[in-house]
Amino acid sequence: MTAKKKQHSGGNHLHQQILEVFQKHPNQHFNYKQVAKRLRVGKASKKKMIEHILKEFVAEDVLMEDRPGKYTMVHTGNSNQALIGKVDMTQSGSAYVEVEGLPDDIYVDENNLGTALHGDIVEMNIIKVKRNGKPIGEVQKVIERAQTDFVGKIEKSLKYAFLVPDSKRMPVDIFIPLSKLKGAQNGEKAIVKMLKWDEGDDSPEGEVIKVLGPEGENETEMHAILAEYHLPSEFPKHIEEEAQQIDVSIKESEVKKRKDLRKVTTFTIDPDDAKDFDDALSIQKLENGNWEIGVHIADVSHYLKEGSQLDAEAFDRATSVYLVDRVVPMLPEVLSNFACSLRPNEDKYTFSALFELDENAQVKSQWFGRTVIHSDHRFTYDQAQELIEGADGKLADEVRLLDGLAKQLRAARFKKGSIDFHSLEVKFKLDDKGEPLGVFIKEQKDANKLIEEFMLLANKKVAEFIGKGKKGMAKPFVYRVHDNPDPEKLQTFSTFIRKFGYRIDTTSPKGISQSLNRLMADITGKGEEQLISTLAIRTMAKAEYSTDNVGHYGLAFPFYTHFTSPIRRYPDVMVHRLLQHYLDGGKAVNQEELEEKCKHSSEREKLATDAERDSIKFMQVKFMQGKEGEVFGGVISGVSDFGFFVELEESKCEGLVRMKSLTDDFYHFDPDNYAIEGKRTGKIFRMGDEVTIRVLKADLSRKQLDFELLNDFDI
Fold it and tell me: Do residue 102 and residue 201 come from a single domain?
């Protein structure tokens, strides 16, 4: 230690106090103002002194300034302090470890990972800090495995076998003794449990626990996708049995506890193939000339009792999973498709939100509580749309009146800053065996928007009712939150769209939302519409569940929750229970426990979304099989350091043009401009550019399409 450092640690009291702040919080970052606040320093002169001392500590390698004005402790390779973090594996075999409190993830080379795998909780040290302040680390040991079951293809030889994992984040194959194959044959898909991975061994050892079937078959691949994301494919026998024992009859004793709305005109509007009708609308004119609109939601919590095995199973699943050719429900069929489904001409228990609306769609009063309803009719979206467009039919006046109110609600929502993103939902036409026949775009028409607006209204008003609380005392609740966009992403996006002649206001949240809506209107029908809309969505934060209400930025709602789909989302079940609990005068629930449930629900939602995306990729590749060598037009939909993705115009299937296949120049990746650029020619390939490609390969095992870029003279 230098004499100067000895002086700091002993003689200079302020130096020592500042150092103690960082020593107590070695993984956190502070600027000089935050240090001053912790030391209760108010004088400007002393704050200036703190700023000077922080720079001294940086010069002495005691602290590092890894971003302007932000300081943290320097962790050296011989430091005794071990860090605990979560591994985020890359496809190249290296990884980043996320350590709570550190602003940057720690890079770990594949040679320094030991036996750590994606998602594992590990103990590690920082061995080096790069000149830009980015840390490099080494894993010391695995504390907790994220998973031990892996999905992949069996490769069998005469003396042993391996599982080649499907996941691109699993860098090693799993060795399987022939005695532990459980009948799996070469080339079949299987699930393997990792039994051990000893230090010094090249591969972990495992055993087959389930054979899924031949690679490439729909059943095999869909079950493989579910297993890859640790999602169930069926209900355990004891859960099915418990569900079958539930009394689903309508009891007069229960009806007396509820508001009876069975004589009020009520109907459902759902997709053609829907079986779980979890919402219905009712309408009746009041004596004062206003309208009472009812949003009625299946009362799942009446049947799903807290503490039951069935409830534990639903919580664990947290969501229904919508794969390209099937739905894996959150609840057994006896509940999802029968007891809870608001089928026509049947009495049903519901949890309702009743709103008194005037002719301008202004909410004059509201009521929340348990009800019993009787749906008079079941519309498909197409049938409701025909009525909206003027066709005659049952309940045509009621449907058209609701449509008029919904359009006013929608206009008011956008006026207040809700963002109207343009996005396409691609669907496959499948035959009886699940084979793809074609692709179509699911169109959002007025009938879809009608239902959407009243569901949004109910979700918003329920959240407001609890969130505002009496005398400003809000009780813990489940919110669907959507944070403000990332400023850096937004600035990059703003710079990019100027190339097309568009601008957005990034000076305030309201300015952003208003200018984004103008942008969405300006690009409608233009060639760059899908590109700019996609990039705009990518600048946004991800919506999630939380007890910490930060509002919903995309909808411009200060309070928002999920109340309207308890058949397929567990957070909605939690919301129903909490709402009834607070309506009954119940005390505040434990917020920490509720937050853990929110976190679990958000994580399961992401897994379900990723599984759905993988199932679509699989079907895209299957649809393109047999089309190798054919030529298609498309649009560059993504750019990376290994090439660019092209979305085909007609089928919307997406494939990769690899960087190494572009032999006319040496290309480099320009992330700020969503482009790759030729070093010698200056040729640029940018997101949104129209290109022509030839299909090279449709690789079903990797769920990947490989394309070859064609020049004009190649066509």
Answer: no
CA–CA gap between residue 471 and residue 352 (Å, rounded): 25
Tens-digit pLDDT profile for residues 446-488: 999 999 999 999 999 999 999 997 766 789 999 999 998 888 8
Among the candidates 40, 73, 106, a domain finishes at 73
- The alpha-helical segments, DSSP class H, found in 524-588 are 529-539, 570-583
CA nearest to 257, candidates 587, 563, 582, 580: 580
Q: Does residue 186 share a domain with residue 283?
A: no
Q: For residue 140, tell me if it sits in a domain.
A: yes
- pLDDT of the residue at 10: 36
Q: Are residues 427 and 332 in the same domain?
A: yes
Cβ atoms of 131 and 64 within 8 Å: the answer is no
Helix (H, G, I), strand (E, B) or coil at 692: strand
Q: Could you give the CA distance from residue 689 to residue 675 in angstroms, rounded to a whole number? A: 10
In a domain, 528, yes or no: no
Is beta strand 631-640 parallel, antiparallel or unpaired with respect to 643-648? antiparallel
What's the CATH number where 159 sits?
Answer: 2.40.50.700
- Show the beta-strand stretches assigned E in 417-541: 425-430, 436-442, 479-481
Domain that residue 92 falls in:
83-144
The answer to whether 551 and 557 have CB atoms below 8 angstroms apart is: yes
Q: Is 521 helix (H, G, I), strand (E, B) or coil?
A: helix
- Looking at the fold, whether 629 and 676 belong to one and the same domain comes out as yes
Q: What tokens were used for 553?
A: 């930025």
Kindly state the greatest CA–CA separation across the chain: 93
CATH code for the domain in which residue 709 is found: 2.40.50.140
The count of domains in the chain is 5
Burial class (CB in 10 A: 0-12, 13-18, 19+), 282: buried
pLDDT of residue 683: 93
132 with 161, same domain?
A: no
Going by pLDDT thresholds of 50, 70 and 90, the confidence category of residue 20 is confident
Residue whose pair of structure tokens reads 């079937």 in the numeric block: 213
Verify that 207 and 243 share a domain, yes or no.
no
Same domain, 321 and 426: yes
Distance, C-alpha 349 to centroid of its chain: 31
- pLDDT greater than 60 at residue 234: yes
Beta-ladder partners of 137: 126
Q: pLDDT tens digits, residue range 142-162?
A: 999 999 999 999 999 999 999
- Residue whose C-alpha is closest to residue 532's, from 414, 686, 393: 686
List, in order, residues 6 or more apart from 552 with CB less than 8 Å away.
Answer: 480, 481, 482, 543, 560
Mean pLDDT, residues 259-275 taken together: 95
Is 692 part of a structural domain of the chain?
A: yes
Residue with tokens 């679509």: 616
pTM of the model: 0.84
Catalogue the E-assigned strands of 273-362. 279-285, 291-298, 321-323, 326-328, 347-357
Identify whether residues 119 and 209 lie together within a single domain. Answer: no
Query: Two tokens at 363?
Result: 């909410």
Please report, rounded to a whole number, the percentage of residues in the chain having pLDDT higher than 90.
Answer: 71
